[in-house]
Specification:
The complex is a heterodimer of chains A (513) and B (151). Chain A has 513 residues and is mainly alpha-helical. Chain A has 16 helices and 12 strands. The two termini of chain A are 37 Å apart. The relative contact order of chain A is 0.11. Chain B is α+β, with helices and mostly antiparallel strands. The radius of gyration of chain B is 16 Å and the shape is globular. Classes of the chains: A mainly alpha (513), B alpha+beta (151). Chains A and B meet through helix 7 of A and helix 1 of B.
Amino acid sequence: MDSDDDFNMSSEEEDVLEDSDNDNGSVDDFGFDEPEPDLGYTQKEQVKKEKRTFDTNFKVYHPDDIQAQQDDLIDEVNMILDIRKEDAAILLRHFRWNKERLIEDYMDRPKKVLEDAGLGPSTTGPPKLEVIPGFMCDICCEDEPGLKSFAMKCGHRYCADCYGQYLNQKIKEEGEAARIQCPQDGCKRILDAKSLDLLVTSDLQNRYHELLTRTYVEDKEQMKWCPAPDCQNAIECGIKKKDLDKVVPTVACDCKHRFCFGCALPDHQPAPCELVKKWLKKCADDSETANWISANTKECPKCNSTIEKNGGCNHMTCRKCKHEFCWMCMGLWSEHGTSWYNCNRFEEKSGSEARDAQAKSRVSLERYLHYYNRYANHEQSAKLDKDIFTKTEKKMISLQTASGMSWIEVQYLNSASHALQTCRQTLKWTYAFAFYLARNNLTEMFEDNQKDLEMAVEALSEMFEKPVDELANAKLKVEIMDKTSYCNKRRVILLADTADNLANGVWKWSNNN
Amino acid sequence: MTQKRITKELQEVLATPPPGIKVNLVDESNVHNWNIIMDGPADSPYAGGKFQLLLVLPPEYPFKPPKINFKTRIYHPNVTFDEHGSMCIGILKSEAWKPSSRIPNVLTAIQQLLLEPVPDDALEQATAQKFKEDRKAYDKEAREMTKKYAK
Ligand SMILES: [Zn+2]
Ligand SMILES: [Zn+2]
Ligand SMILES: [Zn+2]
Ligand SMILES: [Zn+2]
Ligand SMILES: [Zn+2]
Ligand SMILES: [Zn+2]
């Protein structure tokens, strides 16, 4: 933005900045992870001890951990029930890794359990390839002497080639592993890993075990794969489907991807999954109406010259007439830095204006667009903020060499960028959330929180767009660090309040959409 | 290897075809494309009709299931009422197909489907709806369509 920095701070904000202890320059705050809230230190103590209400307990598992978990369970069942490890593995998969239920059922009716799991009665010894005189393979119809064949304990015998090709088809083409049955029509016998090793090449064996690991995670209700592309980790979290109207379980993988354990979408706090689903569907259905919004250019409300938005900040200054306005509501920017700030709230017109159906539908569209605009704008701005950061980072490197600043000294920009990303992500979803809220005191409080966070984020975003030589200025650096920690703090307050109300079931939903 | 199995199956089907079914090759030089003529089962509204089907054995047969489509239009919840005549039938789903399954099993499964439609697994929703709610009207429509297309 090319305006002067004449942003007015609200008195409340100044207070906070004065009495917060400025330790946000510590290395701790430079991480890429979820920013630690930087509260005044009495509050900070509390936060460190208590879990924040909107935090979810979870554990990240790496591929090795996942394998080890399965092996441990298999070993246990192998010892307790005194059955082969291959069979223990099949039984566990059949019981979706519920060890207790498996052992209980097996103690009661071992025969039935084995049969149901595809481990019916034995007719032969340990798996081996055999040459049987007079054998004809029922799949390929070959009967040449010396043909090697294989049968599992069910006794259904096929030539080794056909068996191998069948397994290849199942594993490679169909991605099946845990539930591969005997090739015999109607036979439910499940193939075990030892038999597999006899019949296929080692790369297929590896693929098979990879797939088994997959099913292990997919079979467990409390486990999910990290949806980030190329990430092999899984997350364990105790949140059940039925809890999803009370909590928004955001989890963070070690790969840094933050996502919702409930629906696997990227972090959408504070909005609950159900609402997110509804909102996304609505946006998709109404995409035509809303399409123009993502446009990156608008006209100056005063002189009508075209203005392009190329940073995340919503404070626009017309190059031609120097008019300062808000990109979101096109209103005067001077009103935005004060307690008059009302950009986030949708003012419902009095009912008398909207009597006929047409007027009503216009009002409802306006209402939707108010929220959609802001939702889409924060998404867009987050991207633009990131672009700015990438550019700034490059310049910073040259600046570092010029000014002799150390790498650690310029990390405050990294922290600021990260705060902008997470806060805009949160702000984005506050608009979807607010769209579904009924008008009441609670909603007003929510909007006040939203307003505080939004104002702080826009202020930070604006500082962030300063030219590099200004950024290196010690005073601005302190301001950016303060604003960064203030943004993080406002975000925590908003999320905590919203989560508490959600957990207590006190939000009232609007019925006009 | 595939060739031997297919030839054997073909010989068996030609020698002892399942009741109500005739089989011949679309093109004598290609054992992968079979032409099937299926009689509408006696206890169904398709009785009296002769339905042509095309059965294609993929190169991976019998590790992959055959593909089969109605060439004759048929009014049935589980068969698309268009030029494709696609159908949805359990035995042909890759998770149910076993390499030891035989083509006559597939053909009898289709005959069974004509006798007992599975409306909950329908490809033609309107037809399924009618089958469930007004069996008489469904039978009538099926008989008329059989007369019209399957002569
Ligand atoms: Zn064979
Ligand atoms: Zn078997
Ligand atoms: Zn990950
Ligand atoms: Zn979710
Ligand atoms: Zn202007
Ligand atoms: Zn505004």
